[in-house]
Design goal:
Elements (H helix, E strand, L loop, with lengths): L5 H14 L4 H20 L9 H12 L4 H20 L26 H8 L5 H13 L3 H5 L6 E2 L4 E5 L5 E4 L3 H10 L14 H12 L9 H13 L4 H8 L4 H23 L1 H4 L17
Antiparallel strand pairs: 1-2, 2-3
Length: about 300
């Protein structure tokens, strides 16, 4: 037992998540949600260690009043993990959050960056480090946390490969190509670690700054580079099993998501090329009167 204080439970939960190999970003989200759940239980005079399904459902309803569906779904996932921890500590006998069914929102399809957008962001880089981070995201398909943790000791410049520590504390090698490795070599001449910063949000802040400088709009975030890499790899003739190894996916279904996105892009391009109205002889201008003010 790590103590009965709320902070003690949250700290213990943090250690539990670190042992599971989760990223620092995920650990922060999970522990914050556990803290909010504990505080809500205390305000409603509920012992969180013995809370039931009804209490979890009521809490999610409270969250849904002011938050998006995806945020509420994340809260449920975090509470499930928290009770897994409590059960392991023998402080709970069941996981009430696993009895709650909540519909997973369908996320809109991620749009890959266009070649022009990629070029504009690359030329917005100010030094070798920023160029190396950008190139690893764009041409190695690495996650934000994977780029952040790269050190010179992980790089084999002779073979052109980088050893990456991925999810679940699993290592894999990627070969991003000689141009990327050359920039990475220059970047690491200034220090042992590519990103020698305490805050692990450096990569995300860099991406947003590059996008702003390049004049891009919309949702710009590191994982969008991973999506762009995957779809480009498949469109160039890469195979699903190869992509699975490169991206460090544990299950083929994870890589198939990118295959479906690629197929969708091909289908929409083909649909546009066909010009179906023209095939059946429909003149889009027929029976349409153009206003006089629009006639030049």
């Amino acid at each position: 037992m790590r103590g009965l204080l709320d902070g003690g439970w949250v700290d213990g939960f943090r250690w539990y998540l670190q042992a599971q190999g989760l990223s620092q970003h995920s650990i922060k989200n999970y522990t914050n949600n556990a803290r909010w759940w504990i505080e809500w239980c205390r305000e409603h005079e509920i012992d969180f260690r013995s809370a039931g399904r009804d209490a979890v459902t009521l809490y999610l309803g409270h969250r849904a009043e002011t938050r998006k569906q995806a945020t509420v779904m994340l809260s449920l996932l975090c509470i499930r993990y928290f009770y897994d921890y409590l059960i392991e500590e023998k402080e709970a006998i069941s996981n009430p959050a696993r009895l709650v069914k909540y519909r997973q929102p369908q996320a809109p399809p991620t749009q890959p960056f266009s070649p022009e957008e990629m070029r504009r962001m690359y030329y917005a880089c100010q030094n070798f480090r920023e160029q190396a981070v950008f190139l690893l995201l764009a041409f190695a398909g690495l996650r934000r946390s994977e780029v952040f943790s790269i050190r010179r000791a992980d790089c084999d410049f002779a073979s052109g490969s980088v050893l990456v520590l991925g999810k679940g504390s699993k290592y894999r090698r990627v070969n991003p190509g000689p141009a990327v490795m050359e920039v990475l070599d220059f970047a690491l001449k200034f220090g042992e670690q590519l990103c020698p910063f305490a805050a692990d949000d450096y990569v995300e802040r860099l991406v947003q700054r590059l996008a702003k400088k390049a004049g891009l709009h919309g949702r710009i975030y590191p994982h969008r580079f991973r999506h762009t890499f995957a779809t480009t790899f498949l469109e160039a003739g890469g195979q699903i099993d190869e992509l699975m190894i490169i991206l460090g996916h544990a299950r083929p279904e994870q890589s198939m998501y990118y295959a479906r996105a690629t197929q969708q892009r091909r289908a929409l391009t083909r649909m546009q090329e066909l010009d179906l109205p023209a095939l059946i002889g429909v003149d889009r201008r027929a029976n349409i009167t153009v206003p006089a003010e629009l006639v030049s």
